[in-house]
Amino acid sequence: xxxxxxxxxxxxxxxxxxxxxxxxxxxxxxxxxxxxxxxxxxxxxxxxxxxxxxxxxxxxxxxxxxxxxxxxxxxxxxxxxxxxxxxxxxxxxxxxxxxxxxxxxxxxxxxxx
Amino acid sequence: xxxxxxxxxxxxxxxxxxxxxxxxxxxxxxxxxxxxxxxxxxxxxxxxxxxxxxxxxxxxxxxxxxxxxxxxxxxxxxxxxxxxxxxxxxxxxxxxxxxxxxxxxxxxxxxx
Lengths: 113, 112
Prior knowledge:
The structure holds two protein chains of two kinds. Chain A is mainly beta.
Protein backbone atom coordinates (compact mmCIF):
# COMPACT_ATOMS: atom_id res chain seq x y z
CA UNK A 1 0.00 0.00 0.00
CA UNK A 2 1.31 3.42 -1.01
CA UNK A 3 1.71 5.48 2.11
CA UNK A 4 3.62 7.93 4.24
CA UNK A 5 4.39 6.66 7.73
CA UNK A 6 5.44 8.60 10.79
CA UNK A 7 6.72 7.45 14.14
CA UNK A 8 5.95 7.92 16.89
CA UNK A 9 2.30 8.90 16.58
CA UNK A 10 2.19 10.38 20.05
CA UNK A 11 5.05 11.67 22.18
CA UNK A 12 5.24 13.45 25.49
CA UNK A 13 8.69 14.70 26.40
CA UNK A 14 10.43 17.26 28.57
CA UNK A 15 12.14 20.48 27.65
CA UNK A 16 15.64 20.00 26.28
CA UNK A 17 15.52 16.27 25.61
CA UNK A 18 16.52 15.67 22.00
CA UNK A 19 14.02 13.74 19.90
CA UNK A 20 13.57 12.53 16.35
CA UNK A 21 10.33 11.97 14.50
CA UNK A 22 10.77 9.62 11.59
CA UNK A 23 9.02 9.86 8.24
CA UNK A 24 9.15 7.32 5.47
CA UNK A 25 7.38 7.01 2.12
CA UNK A 26 7.21 4.02 -0.21
CA UNK A 27 6.13 5.84 -3.37
CA UNK A 28 9.56 6.85 -4.65
CA UNK A 29 8.58 10.50 -4.23
CA UNK A 30 11.22 13.15 -4.68
CA UNK A 31 9.64 15.98 -2.69
CA UNK A 32 9.15 15.61 1.07
CA UNK A 33 8.09 18.14 3.62
CA UNK A 34 7.37 18.68 7.30
CA UNK A 35 4.51 20.78 8.66
CA UNK A 36 3.24 21.73 12.03
CA UNK A 37 -0.42 22.42 12.66
CA UNK A 38 -1.59 24.68 15.44
CA UNK A 39 -5.10 25.94 16.22
CA UNK A 40 -5.83 29.16 14.40
CA UNK A 41 -2.56 29.04 12.48
CA UNK A 42 -3.20 26.21 10.08
CA UNK A 43 -0.46 24.12 8.52
CA UNK A 44 2.94 25.78 8.37
CA UNK A 45 5.86 24.38 6.46
CA UNK A 46 8.94 23.72 8.58
CA UNK A 47 11.43 22.22 6.12
CA UNK A 48 11.22 20.58 2.74
CA UNK A 49 13.45 18.54 0.51
CA UNK A 50 13.51 18.46 -3.27
CA UNK A 51 15.68 15.36 -3.37
CA UNK A 52 18.39 13.43 -1.54
CA UNK A 53 20.84 15.75 0.21
CA UNK A 54 18.79 18.81 -0.82
CA UNK A 55 16.84 20.51 1.95
CA UNK A 56 15.51 24.01 2.45
CA UNK A 57 13.78 26.07 5.10
CA UNK A 58 10.06 26.61 5.13
CA UNK A 59 8.27 29.32 7.05
CA UNK A 60 9.00 28.13 10.61
CA UNK A 61 12.37 26.31 10.67
CA UNK A 62 13.68 27.64 14.00
CA UNK A 63 14.37 24.89 16.50
CA UNK A 64 14.21 22.08 13.94
CA UNK A 65 16.68 20.14 11.82
CA UNK A 66 16.16 17.68 9.00
CA UNK A 67 18.24 15.40 6.86
CA UNK A 68 17.62 13.53 3.61
CA UNK A 69 20.20 10.82 3.24
CA UNK A 70 17.85 8.40 1.49
CA UNK A 71 15.03 9.16 -0.88
CA UNK A 72 12.39 7.43 1.23
CA UNK A 73 13.26 8.92 4.64
CA UNK A 74 13.03 12.45 5.97
CA UNK A 75 13.44 12.61 9.76
CA UNK A 76 12.62 15.70 11.80
CA UNK A 77 15.00 16.43 14.66
CA UNK A 78 14.33 18.63 17.65
CA UNK A 79 17.72 19.14 19.29
CA UNK A 80 16.38 20.92 22.37
CA UNK A 81 12.57 20.87 22.39
CA UNK A 82 10.70 23.67 24.08
CA UNK A 83 7.02 23.96 25.09
CA UNK A 84 6.27 26.20 22.09
CA UNK A 85 7.04 23.21 19.86
CA UNK A 86 4.04 21.37 21.26
CA UNK A 87 2.03 20.76 18.13
CA UNK A 88 0.66 18.28 15.62
CA UNK A 89 3.30 17.42 13.04
CA UNK A 90 2.70 16.09 9.55
CA UNK A 91 5.12 14.70 7.06
CA UNK A 92 4.13 14.82 3.40
CA UNK A 93 5.52 13.76 0.05
CA UNK A 94 4.75 14.43 -3.59
CA UNK A 95 5.66 12.62 -6.81
CA UNK A 96 8.02 15.13 -8.27
CA UNK A 97 9.70 18.41 -7.69
CA UNK A 98 6.84 20.03 -9.55
CA UNK A 99 3.79 21.57 -7.91
CA UNK A 100 1.89 18.34 -7.34
CA UNK A 101 -0.51 17.30 -4.63
CA UNK A 102 1.11 16.17 -1.41
CA UNK A 103 0.29 12.93 0.38
CA UNK A 104 0.26 13.27 4.13
CA UNK A 105 1.36 10.93 6.88
CA UNK A 106 -0.97 10.23 9.83
CA UNK A 107 0.55 12.91 12.06
CA UNK A 108 2.58 12.97 15.26
CA UNK A 109 1.16 14.71 18.28
CA UNK A 110 4.04 16.09 20.32
CA UNK A 111 3.74 17.56 23.79
CA UNK A 112 6.76 19.23 25.39
CA UNK A 113 6.43 19.92 29.11
CA UNK B 1 4.44 38.77 2.25
CA UNK B 2 3.07 35.60 0.71
CA UNK B 3 -0.29 34.63 2.18
CA UNK B 4 -3.41 32.54 1.72
CA UNK B 5 -6.69 33.61 3.29
CA UNK B 6 -9.75 31.42 3.57
CA UNK B 7 -13.29 32.46 4.35
CA UNK B 8 -15.48 31.94 6.15
CA UNK B 9 -13.59 30.58 9.14
CA UNK B 10 -16.50 28.34 10.01
CA UNK B 11 -19.88 27.45 8.64
CA UNK B 12 -22.87 25.49 9.91
CA UNK B 13 -25.43 24.26 7.40
CA UNK B 14 -28.14 21.62 7.14
CA UNK B 15 -28.03 18.55 5.00
CA UNK B 16 -28.97 19.31 1.43
CA UNK B 17 -27.67 22.87 1.49
CA UNK B 18 -25.07 24.13 -0.98
CA UNK B 19 -21.95 25.80 0.37
CA UNK B 20 -19.22 27.91 -1.19
CA UNK B 21 -15.82 28.14 0.41
CA UNK B 22 -13.40 30.87 -0.57
CA UNK B 23 -9.64 31.02 -0.86
CA UNK B 24 -7.72 34.14 -1.86
CA UNK B 25 -3.98 34.39 -2.19
CA UNK B 26 -1.09 36.73 -2.64
CA UNK B 27 2.10 34.99 -3.69
CA UNK B 28 4.85 35.61 -6.17
CA UNK B 29 5.45 33.02 -8.89
CA UNK B 30 2.20 31.14 -8.41
CA UNK B 31 2.20 27.60 -9.73
CA UNK B 32 -0.92 25.85 -8.49
CA UNK B 33 -3.67 25.83 -5.87
CA UNK B 34 -4.76 22.73 -3.98
CA UNK B 35 -7.80 21.89 -1.88
CA UNK B 36 -7.70 19.36 0.94
CA UNK B 37 -10.27 17.91 3.34
CA UNK B 38 -9.23 17.23 6.91
CA UNK B 39 -11.35 15.15 9.28
CA UNK B 40 -9.52 14.90 12.61
CA UNK B 41 -6.56 13.28 10.90
CA UNK B 42 -4.27 13.84 7.95
CA UNK B 43 -5.48 16.07 5.12
CA UNK B 44 -6.72 14.24 2.05
CA UNK B 45 -6.33 15.68 -1.42
CA UNK B 46 -9.38 16.98 -3.31
CA UNK B 47 -8.32 19.11 -6.27
CA UNK B 48 -5.37 20.79 -7.89
CA UNK B 49 -5.96 23.82 -10.11
CA UNK B 50 -3.38 25.48 -12.28
CA UNK B 51 -5.38 27.23 -15.01
CA UNK B 52 -8.02 29.90 -14.72
CA UNK B 53 -11.61 29.19 -15.56
CA UNK B 54 -11.37 25.41 -15.75
CA UNK B 55 -13.71 23.77 -13.29
CA UNK B 56 -12.64 20.61 -11.56
CA UNK B 57 -15.44 18.31 -10.44
CA UNK B 58 -15.70 15.23 -8.30
CA UNK B 59 -19.21 14.15 -7.49
CA UNK B 60 -20.86 16.91 -5.46
CA UNK B 61 -17.65 18.89 -5.11
CA UNK B 62 -16.34 21.34 -7.65
CA UNK B 63 -13.70 24.03 -7.71
CA UNK B 64 -12.54 26.82 -9.95
CA UNK B 65 -9.58 29.17 -10.04
CA UNK B 66 -9.41 32.81 -11.05
CA UNK B 67 -5.76 33.73 -11.55
CA UNK B 68 -6.58 37.32 -12.48
CA UNK B 69 -8.45 38.02 -9.25
CA UNK B 70 -6.25 35.61 -7.26
CA UNK B 71 -8.90 33.41 -5.69
CA UNK B 72 -10.51 30.02 -5.83
CA UNK B 73 -13.84 28.67 -4.65
CA UNK B 74 -14.84 25.21 -3.55
CA UNK B 75 -18.50 24.35 -3.96
CA UNK B 76 -20.26 21.48 -2.25
CA UNK B 77 -23.81 20.76 -3.36
CA UNK B 78 -26.41 18.65 -1.54
CA UNK B 79 -24.25 18.56 1.56
CA UNK B 80 -24.19 15.48 3.78
CA UNK B 81 -23.08 15.01 7.39
CA UNK B 82 -20.01 13.23 6.03
CA UNK B 83 -18.89 16.50 4.48
CA UNK B 84 -18.27 17.90 7.97
CA UNK B 85 -14.56 18.67 8.09
CA UNK B 86 -11.98 21.40 7.83
CA UNK B 87 -11.30 22.37 4.23
CA UNK B 88 -7.80 23.59 3.54
CA UNK B 89 -6.54 25.62 0.63
CA UNK B 90 -2.84 25.57 -0.26
CA UNK B 91 -0.89 27.53 -2.83
CA UNK B 92 2.30 26.30 -4.44
CA UNK B 93 4.77 28.90 -5.54
CA UNK B 94 8.39 28.99 -6.58
CA UNK B 95 11.26 30.90 -5.10
CA UNK B 96 13.92 28.77 -6.75
CA UNK B 97 12.27 25.71 -5.21
CA UNK B 98 8.64 24.78 -4.66
CA UNK B 99 7.02 25.94 -1.43
CA UNK B 100 3.53 25.42 -0.09
CA UNK B 101 1.49 27.90 1.90
CA UNK B 102 -1.73 26.78 3.55
CA UNK B 103 -4.66 28.85 4.63
CA UNK B 104 -6.05 28.38 8.13
CA UNK B 105 -9.00 26.45 6.80
CA UNK B 106 -12.77 26.63 6.84
CA UNK B 107 -14.50 24.43 9.39
CA UNK B 108 -17.74 23.08 7.92
CA UNK B 109 -20.36 21.42 10.06
CA UNK B 110 -23.35 19.81 8.36
CA UNK B 111 -26.34 19.11 10.57
CA UNK B 112 -28.71 16.23 9.91
